[in-house]
Design brief:
The chain has 209 residues and is of the alpha/beta class. The chain has a domain at 3-107 and 118-138 and 191-203: NagB/RpiA/CoA transferase-like (Rossmann fold, 3-Layer(aba) Sandwich). Helices cover 39% and strands 21% of the residues. It has eight helices and ten strands. A six-stranded parallel sheet has the order 1-10-7-4-2-3, sandwiched between helices. A four-stranded mixed sheet has the order 8-5-6-9, sandwiched between helices. It starts with a helix and ends in a 6-residue tail after the last strand.
Length: 209
């Protein structure tokens, strides 16, 4: 990554981390995916039960691989035949892993979901939630974050899942009510009532959608 952009990301991350702190959440900055992986593993004690929503960023830094190969109880939803049971198990996990669809410079997290398993676990249930967030997902404000979630993340995810939504064909949100829509629930996390529950690792990289 260009050194000037890396420096910009580091400075912006400081602002985001300060915003997260004011919202009773904890932020970290990683200069690379490798550093992000080290921070994540330092936060997750061995033998912890860990699960996740659909987060490309978590895979991209190698965290899923490390948890599967390490001394952790990783609940792999994709490997479980009973998907509903897998989703329900997430609510009692020690750690829930995710990314965000977008977030603001002052630490507000924005997520959109189709089945609500991800946003509901972020809001309530797992003891701790750990987000892996590329700096490409940081937006000026909530309005910008919502636009990013709907016009960047949602179309890309609809295409990834092979869904027949208008956005998968046009590349931008059409505010649809398609049976395949993944924009069913919107979660804006502006404060965490429980200290030390939500942790956000900001990564100096382009991760996820």
């Amino acid at each position: 990554m260009d050194a000037n952009l890396a420096k910009r990301n580091e400075l912006l991350a400081r602002k985001v981390i300060s915003g997260l702190k004011s919202r009773n959440m904890t932020g970290y900055y990683a200069a690379s995916g490798e550093e992000a992986l080290k921070i994540a593993l330092s936060l997750i004690p061995e033998e912890s039960s860990v699960t996740m929503g659909g987060g490309m960023s978590v895979h991209e830094i190698g965290l899923v691989k490390a948890l599967k190969e390490g001394n952790y109880h990783f609940l792999d939803r994709d490997a479980m035949a009973d998907k509903r049971a897998a989703m329900l198990a997430a609510y009692d996990a020690d750690f829930f892993l995710s990314s965000v669809n977008a977030m603001t410079e002052d630490g507000i997290l924005v997520n959109i979901d189709g089945n609500a398993n991800r946003v509901s676990a972020i809001a309530q249930g797992p003891k701790k939630v750990l987000f892996i967030v590329g700096m490409n997902k940081v937006c000026d404000d909530v309005d910008g974050a919502m636009k990013r979630a709907r016009n960047v993340a949602a179309p890309a995810n609809a295409q990834r899942f092979g869904l027949s939504t208008p956005c998968s064909k046009t590349g931008s949100c059409m505010n649809c009510k398609s049976p395949d829509t993944i924009c069913c629930q919107f979660l804006i996390t502006r404060f965490s009532r429980h200290a030390d529950r939500i942790h956000v690792i900001l990564v100096n990289d382009y991760l996820g959608f």
